[in-house]
Design a protein that fits this description.
Layout lengths: L1 H12 L5 H10 L6 H11 L4 H9 L5 H35 L1
Length: 99
């Protein structure tokens, strides 16, 4: 994760994203600079437009979470209704015994 932050920091500052600069940013932040991971990030970003990547990430749909919460809420309401219905039935049964 630190590598992504360092990459974004260099990009925002208008600096070249290379092994040396990434290593400097990580060391300045007190993070461990893993040579292999740095090389992998540089290779993955080769030929990519970071601004386009950021733009695509910003418009990714995140609607799944609210839909799941609505389903959970419906399930909870149904469970509450079931409990209330059972309580009413039990009360009716008791009333029949003593009524």
């Amino acid at each position: 994760m630190e590598l992504m932050y360092a990459t974004l920091l260099l990009h925002t500052a208008g600096k070249e994203i290379n092994e040396e600069n990434l290593k400097k940013v990580l060391e300045a932040a007190g993070a461990k600079a893993d040579e292999g991971k740095i090389k992998a990030v540089i290779a993955a970003l080769e030929g990519k437009n970071i601004d386009e990547i950021i733009e695509k990430a910003a418009v990714m749909p995140v609607a799944a979470a609210p839909a799941e919460k609505q389903e959970e809420k419906k399930e909870e309401e149904k469970k509450e209704e079931d409990v209330e219905k059972k309580a009413e039935e039990a009360a009716a049964g008791l009333a029949a015994l003593f009524g």
